[in-house]
Amino acid sequence: MSALQMRVAKTQTGPALADPGEPRPARAVSVWRSAGGLQGQEVAEAALVLPLLFMILIAIFWFGQAFRIYGTITQAARQGARAAVAPQCTTCAAATPAQNAQNASNAVSSALTAASLNTAQLQQPSPVPSFVGCSGGPVSCVYPPGSNVCVQANVQLSTSTGGSPGTCGTAVSFGYKYPYHFLIPYTSLDLGNITLPAEAEMRLETQ
Fold first, then answer.
1. Pick from 3, 25, 89, 179: CA 20 to 30 A from residue 9's CA?
2. 196: part of which helix (H) or strand (E)?
3. Which residue intervals of 14-148 are DSSP H helices?
Protein backbone atom coordinates (compact mmCIF):
# COMPACT_ATOMS: atom_id res chain seq x y z
CA MET A 1 0.00 0.00 0.00
CA SER A 2 1.31 3.34 -0.97
CA ALA A 3 1.87 6.18 1.49
CA LEU A 4 -1.07 8.15 0.01
CA GLN A 5 -3.46 5.21 0.46
CA MET A 6 -2.36 4.75 4.07
CA ARG A 7 -2.98 8.44 4.79
CA VAL A 8 -6.49 8.30 3.26
CA ALA A 9 -7.36 5.14 5.21
CA LYS A 10 -6.19 6.73 8.46
CA THR A 11 -8.27 9.85 7.78
CA GLN A 12 -11.44 7.82 7.14
CA THR A 13 -11.16 5.56 10.12
CA GLY A 14 -10.04 8.27 12.59
CA PRO A 15 -8.21 7.67 15.84
CA ALA A 16 -8.96 4.44 17.61
CA LEU A 17 -11.56 4.77 20.38
CA ALA A 18 -10.75 3.63 23.84
CA ASP A 19 -12.31 0.38 24.96
CA PRO A 20 -15.17 1.09 27.45
CA GLY A 21 -14.02 -1.81 29.54
CA GLU A 22 -10.48 -0.52 29.70
CA PRO A 23 -9.69 1.02 33.14
CA ARG A 24 -9.32 4.78 33.32
CA PRO A 25 -5.95 6.26 34.04
CA ALA A 26 -5.32 6.97 37.72
CA ARG A 27 -5.03 10.74 37.10
CA ALA A 28 -8.47 10.94 35.43
CA VAL A 29 -10.09 8.99 38.28
CA SER A 30 -8.49 11.30 40.85
CA VAL A 31 -9.72 14.47 39.11
CA TRP A 32 -13.24 13.01 38.75
CA ARG A 33 -13.41 12.12 42.44
CA SER A 34 -12.13 15.55 43.48
CA ALA A 35 -14.78 17.29 41.38
CA GLY A 36 -17.54 15.13 42.85
CA GLY A 37 -16.33 15.74 46.39
CA LEU A 38 -16.25 19.53 45.93
CA GLN A 39 -19.77 19.53 44.53
CA GLY A 40 -21.08 17.55 47.49
CA GLN A 41 -19.32 19.89 49.91
CA GLU A 42 -20.93 22.94 48.26
CA VAL A 43 -24.38 21.36 48.53
CA ALA A 44 -23.86 20.63 52.23
CA GLU A 45 -22.66 24.18 52.92
CA ALA A 46 -25.66 25.64 51.07
CA ALA A 47 -28.03 23.45 53.10
CA LEU A 48 -26.54 24.88 56.30
CA VAL A 49 -26.26 28.54 55.27
CA LEU A 50 -29.47 29.15 53.31
CA PRO A 51 -31.91 28.47 56.20
CA LEU A 52 -29.89 30.75 58.46
CA LEU A 53 -29.83 33.48 55.83
CA PHE A 54 -33.56 33.12 55.25
CA MET A 55 -34.25 33.36 59.00
CA ILE A 56 -32.13 36.54 59.25
CA LEU A 57 -34.05 38.14 56.38
CA ILE A 58 -37.39 37.31 57.99
CA ALA A 59 -36.18 38.69 61.35
CA ILE A 60 -35.09 41.94 59.67
CA PHE A 61 -38.55 42.28 58.14
CA TRP A 62 -40.42 41.70 61.42
CA PHE A 63 -38.12 43.98 63.42
CA GLY A 64 -38.64 46.60 60.73
CA GLN A 65 -42.38 46.22 61.23
CA ALA A 66 -41.93 46.71 64.98
CA PHE A 67 -39.89 49.88 64.38
CA ARG A 68 -42.57 51.22 62.04
CA ILE A 69 -45.31 50.53 64.59
CA TYR A 70 -43.24 52.16 67.35
CA GLY A 71 -42.90 55.34 65.30
CA THR A 72 -46.63 55.35 64.54
CA ILE A 73 -47.78 54.90 68.14
CA THR A 74 -45.33 57.56 69.34
CA GLN A 75 -46.87 59.99 66.86
CA ALA A 76 -50.34 58.91 68.02
CA ALA A 77 -49.36 59.67 71.63
CA ARG A 78 -48.25 63.14 70.57
CA GLN A 79 -51.56 63.70 68.81
CA GLY A 80 -53.38 62.61 71.97
CA ALA A 81 -51.35 64.93 74.18
CA ARG A 82 -51.95 67.81 71.77
CA ALA A 83 -55.71 67.17 71.81
CA ALA A 84 -55.72 67.04 75.61
CA VAL A 85 -54.07 70.43 76.11
CA ALA A 86 -55.52 72.37 73.18
CA PRO A 87 -58.38 74.70 74.21
CA GLN A 88 -61.66 74.05 72.49
CA CYS A 89 -62.13 77.76 71.73
CA THR A 90 -61.05 81.12 73.13
CA THR A 91 -64.36 81.79 74.83
CA CYS A 92 -65.20 78.26 75.94
CA ALA A 93 -64.98 77.19 79.54
CA ALA A 94 -62.02 75.02 80.47
CA ALA A 95 -62.63 71.35 79.77
CA THR A 96 -62.82 68.93 82.64
CA PRO A 97 -60.08 66.28 83.12
CA ALA A 98 -62.52 63.63 81.90
CA GLN A 99 -63.21 65.60 78.71
CA ASN A 100 -59.50 66.15 78.10
CA ALA A 101 -58.87 62.43 78.59
CA GLN A 102 -61.62 61.57 76.14
CA ASN A 103 -60.23 64.01 73.58
CA ALA A 104 -56.80 62.42 73.95
CA SER A 105 -58.21 58.92 73.53
CA ASN A 106 -60.16 59.91 70.43
CA ALA A 107 -57.07 61.47 68.87
CA VAL A 108 -54.98 58.37 69.59
CA SER A 109 -57.63 56.08 68.08
CA SER A 110 -57.92 58.26 64.97
CA ALA A 111 -54.14 58.27 64.44
CA LEU A 112 -53.91 54.49 64.80
CA THR A 113 -56.87 53.89 62.50
CA ALA A 114 -55.35 56.17 59.85
CA ALA A 115 -52.17 54.07 60.03
CA SER A 116 -54.18 50.82 59.71
CA LEU A 117 -53.30 49.69 63.23
CA ASN A 118 -55.81 47.79 65.34
CA THR A 119 -56.93 49.86 68.33
CA ALA A 120 -57.86 46.63 70.14
CA GLN A 121 -54.14 46.07 70.68
CA LEU A 122 -53.93 49.10 73.00
CA GLN A 123 -52.71 48.19 76.49
CA GLN A 124 -52.45 50.17 79.71
CA PRO A 125 -48.91 51.47 80.23
CA SER A 126 -46.72 49.30 82.42
CA PRO A 127 -45.20 50.79 84.43
CA VAL A 128 -47.30 53.93 84.65
CA PRO A 129 -45.13 57.05 84.11
CA SER A 130 -44.35 58.82 87.35
CA PHE A 131 -44.99 62.57 87.37
CA VAL A 132 -45.25 65.20 90.08
CA GLY A 133 -48.29 67.43 89.88
CA CYS A 134 -47.89 71.16 89.45
CA SER A 135 -49.69 71.58 92.78
CA GLY A 136 -47.55 68.88 94.40
CA GLY A 137 -47.99 65.16 94.93
CA PRO A 138 -48.13 62.30 92.42
CA VAL A 139 -50.60 62.31 89.55
CA SER A 140 -52.63 59.23 88.76
CA CYS A 141 -53.90 58.13 85.36
CA VAL A 142 -57.31 59.04 84.02
CA TYR A 143 -58.66 56.39 81.65
CA PRO A 144 -61.58 57.32 79.40
CA PRO A 145 -64.42 54.75 79.41
CA GLY A 146 -63.45 51.67 77.42
CA SER A 147 -59.94 52.98 76.70
CA ASN A 148 -56.46 51.98 77.87
CA VAL A 149 -54.96 55.40 77.15
CA CYS A 150 -53.50 56.92 80.33
CA VAL A 151 -53.91 60.69 80.58
CA GLN A 152 -52.11 62.54 83.37
CA ALA A 153 -53.11 66.19 83.46
CA ASN A 154 -51.46 69.17 85.18
CA VAL A 155 -48.10 67.48 85.64
CA GLN A 156 -44.73 69.14 86.15
CA LEU A 157 -42.78 68.84 82.90
CA SER A 158 -39.88 71.02 84.01
CA THR A 159 -38.87 72.47 87.34
CA SER A 160 -38.37 76.17 88.04
CA THR A 161 -34.83 77.42 87.51
CA GLY A 162 -33.43 80.89 88.08
CA GLY A 163 -36.71 82.24 89.40
CA SER A 164 -38.65 81.24 86.27
CA PRO A 165 -41.77 79.12 86.79
CA GLY A 166 -41.75 75.51 85.74
CA THR A 167 -43.73 74.14 82.84
CA CYS A 168 -47.01 72.34 83.43
CA GLY A 169 -48.58 70.06 80.89
CA THR A 170 -50.31 66.79 80.15
CA ALA A 171 -48.80 63.37 79.60
CA VAL A 172 -50.38 60.67 77.45
CA SER A 173 -49.09 57.11 77.55
CA PHE A 174 -50.16 53.62 76.53
CA GLY A 175 -48.79 50.33 75.31
CA TYR A 176 -49.36 48.61 71.99
CA LYS A 177 -49.08 44.85 71.78
CA TYR A 178 -47.10 43.71 68.75
CA PRO A 179 -49.75 42.08 66.53
CA TYR A 180 -47.52 39.48 64.84
CA HIS A 181 -45.93 36.30 66.15
CA PHE A 182 -42.36 35.50 65.17
CA LEU A 183 -40.44 32.88 67.14
CA ILE A 184 -36.67 33.24 67.21
CA PRO A 185 -35.30 29.67 66.82
CA TYR A 186 -33.38 28.22 69.77
CA THR A 187 -34.65 31.06 72.01
CA SER A 188 -37.79 31.84 73.97
CA LEU A 189 -38.19 35.22 72.27
CA ASP A 190 -41.50 35.79 70.50
CA LEU A 191 -42.22 39.23 69.11
CA GLY A 192 -45.93 38.58 69.68
CA ASN A 193 -45.29 38.83 73.43
CA ILE A 194 -43.73 42.29 73.20
CA THR A 195 -45.68 45.42 74.17
CA LEU A 196 -44.28 48.57 72.60
CA PRO A 197 -44.45 51.66 74.83
CA ALA A 198 -45.67 55.07 73.70
CA GLU A 199 -45.49 58.27 75.72
CA ALA A 200 -45.71 61.97 74.94
CA GLU A 201 -45.94 65.17 76.94
CA MET A 202 -47.30 68.53 75.89
CA ARG A 203 -47.30 71.82 77.76
CA LEU A 204 -50.59 73.51 78.58
CA GLU A 205 -51.96 75.99 76.09
CA THR A 206 -54.08 78.97 77.12
CA GLN A 207 -55.11 80.20 73.69
1. 25
2. strand 195-203
3. 26-85, 97-114
- Cα–Cα distance measured from residue 84 to residue 32, given in angstroms and rounded to the nearest whole number: 78
| Cα dihedral: 57, 60, 61, 65 (round 10) | 170
Percent of the residues in the chain that have a pLDDT greater than 70, as a whole number: 69
Range 49-60 average pLDDT:
81
Exposed/middle/buried for residue 98 (C-beta within 10 Å: 0-12, 13-18, 19+) = middle
> 106 with 86: CB under 8 angstroms?
no
Quick check: 5 pLDDT over 70? Answer: no
C-alpha triplet 32, 30, 48: angle, nearest 5°: 60
**What would the pLDDT profile of 28-46 be if each residue is shown by its tens digit?**
545 445 555 566 677 777 7
**Cβ atoms of residues 198 and 76 within 8 Å:** yes
